[in-house]
Amino acid sequence: MSNKNSRINNYLSLPRIDKIVVSVGLGEHKENKELTESIGKEIAEITGQKPKIARAKKSISGFKIRENQHIGYVVTLRGKTMNGFLNKLIKVVLPRVRDFDGINEKSLDKCGNLNFSIKEQVFFPEIKPDESKCVWGMTITISLKKKTDPVIAKDYFKKLGFIFKGGENG
User: Fold this and answer.
1) Where are the domains of the chain?
2) For the purposes of burial, counting CB atoms within 10 Å of the CB of 44, is it exposed (0-12), middle (13-18) or buried (19 or more)?
3) Is residue 114 within 8 Å of residue 141, measured between CB atoms?
4) Cα distance between residue 25 and residue 20, in whole Å
5) Which strands make up the sheet holding 70-77, listed edge to edge?
6) How far is residue 4's CA from residue 93's CA, in Å, rounded to a whole number?
7) Are strands 114-118 and 70-77 parallel, antiparallel or unpaired?
8) Which CATH number fits domain 16-160: 1.10.10.10, 3.40.640.10, 3.30.1440.10, 3.30.70.2120?
9) Angstrom distance (rounded) from CA 73 to CA 70
10) Which of 22, 48, 112, 132 could serve as 153's disulfide partner, Cβ 3.0–4.6 Å?
């Protein structure tokens, strides 16, 4: 491809997704063991994988956190589980989010990775709102295999089906 408008000369240099990391902070729920266990079960249902417990590395008195205290959950998805979660996220979850008008372009970092949050877990089809004990949000990071220009990464994510704010999605 010798066209000056093309950005990628080799199909092997196309971006590929390496992993998806889903993280949940417990916040004010960290003191209630029953709620933390229920959040862990729900995140396992959503991702299809048992979450790893995130612990505090050091004490921070302003946040009432002690060293080694349980402060959240982290799930790293790869392979078939990652592809299933990504498909569900694009086709089911994001369209169900209230007042969703796209992901902010600033969610792409300079390496081309996509980071965004979902404020409530009830948008996932596995969660029954009447059975859920509390409302919690999550941060989703979609990491690409190698450092990618953010413009190319944005085009790649658009082709996958993600919608970005303030621009045409074609």
Assistant:
1) 16-160
2) middle
3) yes
4) 17
5) 52-55, 70-77, 17-25, 138-144, 114-118
6) 38
7) unpaired
8) 3.30.1440.10
9) 8
10) 112
Cα 127 → chain centroid: 17
Q: What confidence score (pLDDT) does residue 169 get?
A: 47
* Angle ∠(83,85,91) on CA atoms, nearest 5: 100
> To 5 degrees, how large is the angle CA 65–CA 42–CA 127?
135
| DSSP assignment letter at 10 | -
> Are the CB atoms for 126 and 67 separated by under 8 Å?
no
Which tokens hold the place of 122? 């009830």
Structure-token pair, residue 3 = 């066209």
In DSSP notation, 85-136 reads: HHHHIIIIIHHHSTT---B-GGGB-TTS-EEEEES-GGGSTT--TTT-SS--
